[in-house]
Amino acid sequence: MSAPLLFTILNVLGTFVFGLSGAMVAIRHRFDIFGILVLSVATGVAGGMTRDLLLGAAPPEALTTFWPMAVASLAGVTAFFFTSAIERFNRPVMLMDAVGLGVFAVAGCRKALQFGLDPLGAILLGMITAIGGGIVRDIMATETPRVLHEDVYALAAFAGAATYAVALAAGVPETAAASGAVLLAVSLRLASVRLGWKLPRPPRS
Amino acid sequence: MSAPLLFTILNVLGTFVFGLSGAMVAIRHRFDIFGILVLSVATGVAGGMTRDLLLGAAPPEALTTFWPMAVASLAGVTAFFFTSAIERFNRPVMLMDAVGLGVFAVAGCRKALQFGLDPLGAILLGMITAIGGGIVRDIMATETPRVLHEDVYALAAFAGAATYAVALAAGVPETAAASGAVLLAVSLRLASVRLGWKLPRPPRS
Amino acid sequence: MSAPLLFTILNVLGTFVFGLSGAMVAIRHRFDIFGILVLSVATGVAGGMTRDLLLGAAPPEALTTFWPMAVASLAGVTAFFFTSAIERFNRPVMLMDAVGLGVFAVAGCRKALQFGLDPLGAILLGMITAIGGGIVRDIMATETPRVLHEDVYALAAFAGAATYAVALAAGVPETAAASGAVLLAVSLRLASVRLGWKLPRPPRS
């Protein structure tokens, strides 16, 4: 698969699963269909909008191309009509969020590299792209952003973006670097939840 | 009335009523006069700042021209001194918010069209301009943004911006298109509250 | 001391103390080490990122230079390992926050003047730079931003930025104007807390 095609797929996938996660949070709060759409779109496009603003690429892709809003809206409508099917997954918001996290970390890092940021800045921007949607979703739902209280969350995004940037610098072909990095980030996140990995906490005082 | 004059009036009006709504929320939380000013200014200018950042028009109008901060501050001071008069309105925050919503949806859409966005992007940016101030106000007051839990809120903004863009494309003169679209959006929002319109919600699971 | 060196010191100091304040809030909420880092970095760099975006200076300094993220991360690590030493200060979050507030108000105002904003816009941008980090920190921790409910908070930032801009316009040398303005803003903030200064509140209705 060519790299541009792979990244188009990753970006669409990330927007859709983040959109689903936002919609499921909205449904849990019993918002109406338009509230669901607003939260699914905000969650689906917030990371990419932040990325584009930080890169100086305004207006952001979400306003100049049709697909981000359309894909995120489709996720909202899908969640509305198939709520109980989605709820049959084990912790659906966590699952969708984990996939979006890994995908956007790598895709955000790539766009930052294309815009000329050096690798460290690009890794950080990938991480911001990945955690941005979830922060907007959780804050709008007046919940503490899970990036703060979940172990191995921003760390998984960081690992994904860093793996991609380092692999690329080491001469790994782009599609292999991207696929591997996404898999690593998503696996890290899911494994940490499943296996209950804990990062160090400060001692109680 | 010329279109530029009409839009100047609309922008000043929107900034003032959003400023009032922010101030009334601050007063309800018993913040001091400077807290009231911060929330009235944040609510009054946040939508326009977001609009300008997304259009790549930085520094935003609120920092390069005098009036947005001045008008929003004036709204804060007005609310401080005339609290009980404003509270005599039925649900003053909702009322001010509805007027600002309709005004900014259309004014934001127009600025986006002037910056060369295509109609769909411009409608979405008009909606973001309209709902941005209220989201900032509600999140800063740690309330769930009403764009999520109020029926017919983002939908009213969307309808206003879309009506304006479509009317313009259909050859309706600009002042007529703008006035009609603002009236439509504000009426939709107020009617939905007054008549208790409900949008569909997902079935309880 | 040369002005560029002074401002480098001020920016590093502000980033570090805001980073500490974010970390201490994260520790109070018992987040893990990566959650602490995310909140210390977000708090340390949010004000400057907002400043740069509003000035049209994207990508912001925090992504193109190494030090802001490094300094804010160092603050997070420091808080993690020296929690009880920091807690021996009287109200450490308030103290760190006050220093960052004064420093960033003046440094933000200076950068805005360098980018050609007129003095009033530059003072406002200085204030936004100063209060931005604390707003992000408090909202992410689902607390009401202290800029809203603490007396003499945004006012102290405003006073610092305004003193700097006015002194500069009056011909005061830059290092003297900056040092005096920072001292004034920090003192105002700390004195208001220590002496319990109250700004007017609206009468109870």
Topology overview:
3 copies of one chain form a homotrimer.
Chain A: H1 3-28, H2 33-54, H3 61-64, H4 67-81, H5 83-87, H6 92-114, H7 119-140, H8 146-149, H9 154-169, H10 174-194
Helix pairs in contact in A: 1-2, 1-4, 1-6, 1-7, 2-4, 2-7, 6-7, 6-9, 6-10, 7-9, 9-10
Quick take:
The structure is a homotrimer of 205-residue chains. The first copy, chain A, is mainly alpha-helical and 205 residues long.
Mean of pLDDT of chain A: 95
Unreliable residue stretches of chain A: none
Which percent bin holds the helix content of chain A?
over 70%
Rg of chain A, rounded, reads 16 Å
Largest sheet of chain A: none
Largest interface: A-B, 31 and 36 residues
Overall, the morphology of chain A is: globular
Number of domain units of chain A = 1
How far apart the termini of chain A lie comes to: 54 Å
| Percent range for β-strand residues of chain A | under 5%
Could you state the order of secondary-structure elements of chain A as H and E?
Answer: HHHHHHHHHH
Helix segment count of chain A? 10
Give an overview in words.
Three copies of one chain form a homotrimer. Chain A has ten helices and no strands. Chain A has 205 residues and is mainly alpha-helical. In chain A, helix 2 (33-54) runs antiparallel to helix 7. The A-B interface holds A 26-27, 29-39, 49, 53, 56, 58-60, 63-64, 66, 69, 80, 83-84, 87, 139-142 and B 53-56, 58, 112, 115, 117-118, 120-121, 124-125, 131, 135, 139, 142-145, 147-155, 198-203, 205. Chains A, B, C: Its main location: membrane. Chains A, B, C: Keywords: Cell membrane, Membrane, Transmembrane, Transmembrane helix. Chains A, B, C: This is Putative membrane protein.
